[in-house]
Amino acid sequence: MKKIIVIGEILVEIxxxxxxxxxxxxLALTGPFPSGAPAIFIDQVAKLGQPCGIxxxxxCDDFGRLNISRLQSDGVDVSAISEDLTRPTGTAFVRYRQxxxxxxxxxxxxxxxxxxxxTQAAQTLFDSADHLHVMxxxxxxxxxxxxxxxxxxxxxxxxxxxxFDPNLRKEMLKKDGMRQAMHQLLDQTxxxxxxxxxxxxxxxxxxxxxxxxxxxxxGISAVVHKKGSKGATFHDxxxxxxxxxxxxxxxxxxxxGDCFGGAFAxxxxxxxxxxxxxxxxxxxxxxxxxxxxxxxxxxxxxEIDAFLRHHGEPA
Length: 315
Prior knowledge:
The chain is α/β, with parallel strands linked by helices. It has one domain: UDP-N-acetylmuramoyl-L-alanine:D-glutamate ligase (3-Layer(aba) Sandwich), CATH 3.40.1190.20. The protein has ten helices and 13 strands. It has helices spanning 37-47, 62-74, 120-128, 142-157, 178-188, 198-201, 208-217, 256-269, 274-288, 301-311, and strands spanning 4-7, 11-16, 29-35, 52-59, 81-84, 90-96, 102-107, 131-135, 161-165, 191-192, 222-226, 232-235, 240-243. The strands form two sheets. It has a nine-stranded mixed beta sheet with strand order 5-4-1-8-9-10-11-12-13, sandwiched between helices. β11 and β12 (232-235) form a beta hairpin. The longest helix is centred in the middle third of the chain and has 16 residues, at 142-157. The chain is globular.
């Protein structure tokens, strides 16, 4: 089976036990939970039995050991996770408000995962990869952008493929060189996974049909447009297939999109038909929101099968 790799942040998440506004007073917290969008993505890939690995860095501390242990036990190749002796593992403190929105306090830029280098272990992992998944959340610095571009070129040169989940805010594109870097990544992309208005964010088009035509003109072979509670639609040059979202009780939405992406990329690489891949990816995302903790909701094939037997196809 094809080996999937990802580059980016590994951190722990620590969650407030009570709903409220921010962290201005002492309060009870639960955690640490393994986290980081690329780590959640690759853990979901591993839980489905796909060969995979991650390039990242953690501190020489319990938070780092917690993450490495979890990823390794789920089947992720952790050989390219370096240990930083001077900086701690990244952290995210999160508190939910009454309306469901969240307050975050991050330490990523100044943590171990804020600077990931091209180590010999990373080069070895790139050399073993058949597919690279790029996450916009990890393109926070010129170093990360360059590392992802280099990995994409190496993988493509050997006949591999690239998927790209932009996960971008419009403000990020105002950073020097960011828009150009995004277009360079799009030029390497085979599977594009935008959410909402990200479909047109990196195109000249203002509507869906023109945006799709522009993206396919760049050489992208498939687009999965994620629409939140409205489900997701797969597009290629032959067809468009839509899957509605499942209606489930939401406990914690963090990581659901990463689980969806990990599951869809896995099934897409296996040659699964788009309708089935979308359905199983949607089930993966629905399972993710039912657990507290960003990586606690990753699921294996048997759990997805059981969910689908119970829920059927979304109405």
